[in-house]
Amino acid sequence: MKQSALHTIMMPVRGDGQGPVLFAHAAALAKRFNAHVRVVHCHPKVEDMMPYGVVIPTFLRKQLAEATAKRDDYEEAYLRDKFVADAAHHGISVEPRAAGKPTAAWREYEGKQVEAVRHYGRIADLICVSKPNEEENLGFNTLKSALFTSGRPVMICPKTDQVQPDIGKHVAIGWNGSLEASRAVALAMPLIEGADEVTILTAGHIDHTATPEEFCHYLSQRGISSKINAFERKGNVGRSLLAKCGEVGANMLIMGAYHESYERESLLGGNSATIVNETTMPVVMVH
Question: Is the CB of residue 109 less than 8 Å from the CB of residue 48?
């Protein structure tokens, strides 16, 4: 069958130093699929920088607005130059989308990063976000917005800019028959079809849902050869999934995420939250 296509990869950036990490992952996929990387720089609106509930004199408000604009201009220029340098380093053309080659373009967005992810994420085939920093509590809102407001697959990128060019060559799929797993497969099909090897990881399935064997057969009908690797359900399944990925040699995990609520899993250390916190490989999640 004709393969699905990965056309557009969206990645948000701001002055947190994660741009090169995200671009390295996005560029590797762009070169594999001749895709377009849309880099969106987010800077806050002036009113968002004003203290809430505090009356500010007009002259001071003007000074704050000018200082914010000056800082935003400096950050934009610095990050845009870094983007151009990163694109050249990874062999990506900085231009509008062009057929048959990987390209990248820069966009400015005035507003919060969670809003930019919702805006541009809905017109992308994949959203790249950096692995949240648990110690500094950074990146969790961006990940949550990408997962719950975009309707698109989200790739969590580990904190390294040394990305192998064969990223996604061996894809592991976490399968339990859940709605989230089914959505993940449907939305990440370009990555699955583009893989040289596909392994279905399963610790059982939900009653009255498709079994791993039925899922394997479904993939075969699409011309995708896969194998099943079953493991015992004990302890944290998320941690077991990551360990199994290492055992089978997969370099990308695709899975449904947050079957329970985001808040509940994050608070109680659910499977999805464990993978987000502990992964050292790219993980594509879909809620």
Answer: no
The whole-model pTM stands at 0.90
Residue ranges of the chain assigned to CATH 3.40.50.620: 8-157, 170-286
CA pair distance 105, 90, nearest whole angstrom: 14
Q: Which helix (H) or strand (E) holds 221?
A: helix 212-221
The sign of the CA dihedral 205, 232, 244, 213 is negative
Q: Which of 95-99, 104-108, 132-136 has the lowest mean pLDDT?
A: 132-136
Instruction: Give 58's contacts (C-beta < 8 A, 6+ positions apart).
Output: none
Identify the bridge partners of residue 227 per DSSP, sorted by sequence position: 199
CATH architecture of 170-286: 3-Layer(aba) Sandwich (3.40)
Confidence at residue 1, expressed as pLDDT on a 0 to 100 scale: 44
- Give the pairing of strands 252-256 and 170-174: parallel
pLDDT in tens, 12-35: 998 888 999 999 999 999 999 999
Q: End-to-end alpha-carbon separation of the chain, Å?
A: 27
- Angstrom distance (rounded) from CA 92 to CA 37: 9
Cβ atoms within 10 Å of 264's Cβ, excluding its own: 12
Cβ(189)–Cβ(2) below 8 Å: no
Structural tokens at position 88:
């050249």
- Which residue in the block uniquely carries the two structure tokens 């701001």? 14
Architecture of domain 8-157: 3-Layer(aba) Sandwich (3.40)
Return the pLDDT at 268. 44
